Amino acid sequence: LKATEDLHEEAAPALAQSERKRHEFNRQVTVQWKEKDFQGMLECHKEGEALLILNLVTDLKPHMLLDTVPCLPAYILYMCIWLADHTNDDLKLHSLMTSTTNGTKKVLKKHSDDFEMTSFLLSNTCHLLHCLKPYSGDEGFMTQNTAKHNEHCLKNFDLTEYCQVLSDLSIAIYQQLFKIAEGVLQLMIVSAMLENESIQGLSGVKPTGSQKHSSSMGDGDNSYHLEAIIRQMNAFHTVMCDQGLDPEIILQVFKQLFYMINAVTLNNLLLRKDARSWSTGMQLRYNISQLEEWLWGRNLHQSGVVQTMEPLIQAAQLLQLKKKTQEDAEAICSLCTSLSTQQIPPLNEFEEKVTVAFIQTIQAQLQEQNDPQQLLLDVKHMFPVLFPFYPSSLTMESIPACLNLEFLNEVDACLV
């Protein structure tokens, strides 16, 4: 097999023509295949394989597939894999799968800070898995197949190992996707959630020079409002939806992002004495409600996304509670179920008019709780990512020929 780095050299003779034709791509989704009896197999000769990987993986840009079937490259690749299986060509199958995987890794490394490209890679890699699983002959994945789908099942090869490789690659792509989103949002969180006034008439927490210097969330010179976070999340959401990323994966991305917003905000709240006030609690609760409203508006409130914000919600409520009597102490202990015994007193011990005796009462009641003795949340904590199986509604012959793949031959399955 040729190394991925040799792909450009191998494809050089055909590359000039390929580039000239790219601006003429047909964006319609109703293009008919040339052969009347075409059943969904595509033949890629050895000399055209490098160009295939260039057009579908290493040189393909997301904007080139606007208004086409989402994840079209994954379907085209499977059509070539299907023929390799049908003709019992082990070398061709291995070459296609290896070139696709290596090409994806190359693009992933090259675009390590590009959210759109990383989302594009994740969507296509997952959909290639969705193609391999129902057509692999595994009865567990064939239950939702139609009769037409079953006609496309692989006959000769067990793709379990290849599926595992693609699954591992999907995890790596997902982690890069979150890392990029995290890097963009983390600079905004402290300023937007704690320092900027979101309710008119309340004085927000203003960073002092020393606080600017000590903040790990940015250089302290930039000021962000909550709208900046919401606009950025809208951009992330639009990109992932437009590229056909599975809804469950989108949910997991935002669950991880909302956990990070919760952890960064709560940690800064715990470390900053000037933030522990009734007005900060009001501002914070309002900001959280705006984020919750955004989640509901995009049907992302499920699967534990909102629950990741529960510690911050309870901290905001805690700042607004009365803190004088035994009843107040009991109310605080019953409310703060998502906060550890180490996190509750620091939120209030510097607040004006809270007595030492009241703090001691809280501590005495909390000693009965058996929870982790932690003060700060782990900002880098990652939830396990799951890639659920989605059966495709497309049959192979319905996929449009809108990529620059004239060098591929459509194959009548009856003639193979």
TrEMBL record:
Span list, region Disordered: 1-21
Pfam name, any one: DIL
One GO MF term attached to the UniProt entry: GTPase binding
Superkingdom of origin: Eukaryota
SMART domains on file: DIL (SM01132)
InterPro entries: Dilute_dom, Vascular_dev_regulator
Transmembrane residue ranges: none
Residue span, Dilute domain: 98-368
Biased composition (Basic and acidic residues): 1-11
PANTHER family documented for this protein: DILUTE DOMAIN-CONTAINING PROTEIN, DILUTE DOMAIN-CONTAINING PROTEIN YPR089W
Record protein name field: Dilute domain-containing protein
